[in-house]
Amino acid sequence: MGTEAYEVVRAVLSADPISVDQAIAAVESDTAGAVVSFSGVVRNHDGGKAVQRLSYSAHPTAHQVMADVVARLVAEQGAEGDAGAEQPVRIWAAHRIGMLEIGDPALVCAVSAAHRGQAFAVCSELVDRIKEQVPIWKEQFFSDGTVEWVGAGG
Asked: What is the pLDDT of residue 116?
């Protein structure tokens, strides 16, 4: 029992574009029976209003919080998992900061594991925790010229 069955490939905030293809390529291996990915993209509407673009701003501690959130998940999952597994659970996660256009990925996660159940569960929990705990704020620019801040994280 322990966390050695988990490998965090990446857990970052990124000013550069991110992609689900990049995430999948980073975690897949010949021994992984499942790769589950998530791509949260910028949509063209919110609350019935047309969105043109948005900007993500991060608290100065957000980089460390992101790393801590993933490390905590790994510690919890590893404590109940099979440390002797021939396939480590590999995790990749990145959240964009800065200005994004419609269709741009804002949050991308990928998890590989020996079996799909574990890959789905870890990926889902990872997305939920990042959205709930990492201090990132979204500034939405609407087509009518108005702007709205939306708090994210802690």
From this structure: 95
